[in-house]
Design a protein that fits this description.
Length: 91
């Protein structure tokens, strides 16, 4: 015979599974966009685009996805921002 505690446990588990499925369906597009942005960033660096990699740049690309990666790559190519530092020795 099934007790009330067992029924409650089954209900809690089913509710948790439904909430997890709902959360996963909301987060999945963000994860895909993040992976595509990071892959574009890596591909650009393999093609010779020099970008100063820092925690801020990685966070911007991870949160911005493909548009974030394109902005970072464009700003680096135009020497506006995210340009690798050059060691300058004054004479």
């Amino acid at each position: 015979m099934i007790t009330a505690v067992e029924l409650g446990a089954i209900a809690v588990v089913l509710l948790a599974l439904l909430l997890f499925a709902r959360l996963l369906s909301v987060v999945r597009p963000l994860l895909v966009n993040t992976v595509v942005g990071l892959l574009a960033f890596v591909l650009a660096s393999l093609l010779g685009v020099e970008v100063a990699v820092s925690a801020f740049v990685i966070a911007l690309v991870a949160l911005g996805g493909l548009p974030g990666a394109l902005v970072v790559i464009l700003l680096s190519a135009l020497d506006v921002a995210f340009v690798p530092a050059v060691l300058a020795i004054p004479f």
